[in-house]
Design a protein that fits this description.
mainly beta, 22-stranded mixed beta sheet, 20-stranded mixed beta sheet
């Protein structure tokens, strides 16, 4: 124990042999047995052969080449090359862990100035990347915790969390990321050509999508859609903003959620289930289905263009651009078709201002009531059959 290996020196530790607290100074330690506490200085190398195990190595500018197993190494100003298996490595400022093709690393902790690099064919699991640390993935990473650190995903990232200011997953072109949870200042950034799926954007979390996002859940966080988003759910104060040129399809807006379609943005096939879909001037709201209460807010007097289905008691259509005036604002219903493909036109007028909406289903004039929305517009509801609320003057056309 306590051997010092100087320049040009070599120490061999064979199977069944042990060594503790050696220091490598520009020398080489080759181990087939078990070694613990080796310090590797600049110019030194610890070579862990297949079947060998290195425990608690301290890299201070030297190299750790692992074809066997390395446990609880500390890498600062040095490099650990993993061709076998590394467990619980800590990589600090100036340190680098490289997980080669066919190799695995688990439980790596990367602190400020440190890097974890996963080569194509390499696998990393359960890494923790702290503020200022970086994980670069050309292989596969699963369950990474980005606690203020950054992960660059060029191939496959599965699960994991992004929390705290600076905690960010960047999904590059051609890469896939699934199941990330971003909250408390954490972010997921999907570059054009990148794909994210099943992300969870929790309170304080953010997702910016320039590529593709599928099946995510926005729960208290915010998603900015600049690309293509589909099949997601917005709940619990979550917000999706569909920007100009972007598209969102098949979204479900649950209670407390908001889908906001900016001018030039497109939403198709939204289901409102207690939440709010807001369509601004110049946006395309597509076809909308009411499932269980909620609000369709149309900010512009320009015709909605899409269809509305499932409108019943508890649902609301807010025409923000059409001022409500008692005794002047009128609603009329025209049933155009009946049966399985029933549809009609709801016309809302206030003086010379007119808005028309196409609803799928069989309705009568009694299904629609207009009141002030409290924000200068007109709120349309389906009043209870026994309601004592005075309905707007209605004209039914057959």
């Amino acid at each position: 124990s306590g051997t010092t290996i100087s320049s040009g020196g070599v120490e061999y530790v064979y199977a069944g042999g042990t060594e503790t607290n050696a220091t490598i100074v520009s020398g080489l330690q080759v181990l087939f047995g078990v070694v613990s506490g080796t310090t590797v200085s600049s110019g030194g190398e610890e070579y862990v052969a297949s079947g060998g195990t290195a425990i608690g190595a301290k890299l201070k500018g030297g190299y750790d080449v692992v074809f066997g197993s390395a446990v609880s190494a500390t890498v600062s100003s040095g490099t650990q090359y993993v061709f076998g298996l590394a467990t619980a490595t800590t990589v600090s400022s100036g340190g680098l862990q490289v997980v080669e093709s066919g190799a695995g690393a688990s439980g790596t902790v990367v602190s400020s100035g440190g890097q974890d690099y996963i080569v194509s064919g390499g696998v990393a699991s359960g890494a923790k990347v702290l503020s200022g640390g970086i994980e670069t993935v050309f292989g596969t990473a699963s369950g990474t915790m980005l606690s203020g650190g950054v992960q660059y995903d060029y191939r496959i990232a599965v699960g994991g969390t992004a929390v705290g200011a600076g905690g960010e997953q960047i999904v590059e072109a051609g890469a896939l990321a699934s199941g990330l949870t971003a909250s408390g200042g954490g972010e997921e950034y999907v570059v054009a050509g990148g794909t994210a799926s099943a992300a969870i954007i929790g309170s304080g979390g953010l997702e910016a999508v320039f590529g593709i996002d599928r099946g995510g859940t926005i729960s208290g966080g915010t998603q900015y859609d600049y690309g293509t988003v589909s099949g997601g759910t917005i709940i619990s104060s979550g917000e999706q903003i569909v920007e100009a040129g972007a598209a969102a399809s098949g979204m479900t807006v649950d209670s407390g959620g908001l889908e906001y379609i900016a001018s030039g943005g497109t939403a198709v096939g939204t289901t409102i289930s207690g939440g709010t879909l807001e369509v601004t001037s110049g946006a395309n709201g597509g076809n909308v289905t009411f499932a269980s209460g909620g609000i369709l807010q149309l900010d512009s007097l320009v015709a909605f263009g899409g269809t509305i289905s499932g409108f019943h008691l508890g649902d609301e259509i807010d025409l923000r651009g059409l001022a409500f005036t008692s005794g002047t604002t009128n609603l009329s219903w025209t049933q155009l078709t009946s049966g399985a493909n029933a549809s009609g036109t709801l016309t809302v007028s206030s003086g010379a201002t007119v808005e028309t909406l196409t609803l799928l289903g069989q309705y009568t004039a009694a299904n629609f009531s207009g009141t002030s929305d409290g924000a200068g517009g007109t709120l349309i509801t389906d009043p209870p059959a026994s309601s004592s609320v005075i309905q707007m003057p209605l004209v039914a056309h057959h």
